[in-house]
Amino acid sequence: MTPVYAMAAAARRLAAVAAGALLLGAVLIPGPIEAQDFGDTPYVQTPQNVVDRMLEVAKVGSGDYVIDLGSGDGRMIITAAKKHGARGFGVDHDRRLVQLSNRLAARAGVADRAVFYERDIYKTDLTAASVVTIYLLPEVNLMMRPKLLATLKPGTRVVSHDYDMGDWPPDEQMVLDAPDKPVGRDKKSKVFFWVVPGNAAGRWRWQLPLAGKSADVDLTLAQNFQKITGTVTAGGGAWPVENARLTGEEINFVVHNRTAAVRYEYSGRIIRNAISGTVRVTGAAAQHQLGWEATRVELGVPAHTLLKKPELQELQRQMQP
Ligand SMILES: C[S@@+](CC[C@H](N)C(=O)[O-])C[C@H]1O[C@@H](n2cnc3c(N)ncnc32)[C@H](O)[C@@H]1O
Fold first, then answer.
1. pLDDT tens readout for residues 8-67
2. N or C: which end of the chain has fewer CB within 10 A?
3. Which residues contact 6 (CB under 8 A, 6 or more apart)?
4. Could you give the CA distance from residue 97 to residue 27 in angstroms, rounded to a whole number?
């Protein structure tokens, strides 16, 4: 056992969490809760109003498959099944919590849709998920991040209680009152939400009618997480893409040729090396909408996929004040 909680700022932030965990453990489950291993997250419940908001933000519905990483007493998956008709599972390395969760799921009448396994989060297959929920230490989030980005399907929603994902900017974030929060003085909770991005990086090409003729349009896109930047070239001109957005595999951007006073609003879906969608063309002369069919002529590598896999000890060192 390494005395990390004395060393890492993140762990210090959670000192209250750990203390609360011991108390909560004493109330919920017989026997003392084991001291946590290096980098493990202690057991603290997400207050029910925060659980409700997290599932709402992720727009969980009956078609969803939700996975809770470190599922505690199972409230996230049980609520997803009971209130939203979703299916899913939770994993926790504490056998007593897993047994408790399965009992609570049965009591709630959702044992066929909400199941709990004694399993390590790092060894859990996440490929079935359409939504992943998390309440883990900040450095554990960062340790999980490469796996989330590499193995979750593009478009999968990830929602985290209290801690972000470092350089991966959230698509949404909020602070809410959490009067029942067992830890912290301000009784507030943060919620962070992401959509796992697809790969939009590389060079794309399509045809567009320009000055009465079909012309080649080229787009070079760079990507870091869901952030995309790039330049369109056509007919000898070059324009930056504006208002670019990548949400899962949905891609949107605007090209504004200010000289010709024409604006192109692109909106489509990436399917491997093709994009299918529409372009809305507006200008002084006319407005119309065309089909947009692009082909990737050169596959790019999103910058975030080149990041070195973090080392837990290094992360904890960085989190020291
Ligand atoms: C802060 S609690 C969150 C519980 C629940 N998800 C909630 O929001 O109410 C974190 C949980 O993760 C579990 N946990 C921590 N590290 C884990 C690991 N490596 N594998 C599986 N479970 C883990 C702990 O036992 C604890 O129950």
1. 333 344 444 434 443 333 334 333 333 344 457 899 999 999 999 999 999 999 999 999
2. C
3. none
4. 12
Asked if 9 and 27 count as a contact pair (C-beta separation under 8 A), the reply is no
| Cα–ligand 1 centroid distance for 11 (angstroms) | 15
CA distances, 83 to each of 51, 229, 244 (Å) = 11, 39, 35
Angle between helix 95-107 and 75-84 (nearest 10): 20
Q: Which residues contact 213 (CB under 8 A, 6 or more apart)?
A: none
pLDDT tens digits, 267-295:
999 999 999 999 999 997 778 999 999 99
| Ligand 1 center to 135 CA (angstroms) | 7
Per this entry, what is the length of the chain? Answer: 321
CA atoms within 13 A on the CB side of 121: 26
Residue 282 forms beta bridges with which residues?
Answer: 263, 287
What domains can you pick out in the chain, each with its CATH number? 4-196 (3.40.50.150), 202-302 (2.40.128.30)
Reported pTM: 0.88
* Ligand 1 centroid from CA 40, angstroms: 8
| Helix, strand or coil, per DSSP, at residue 249 | coil
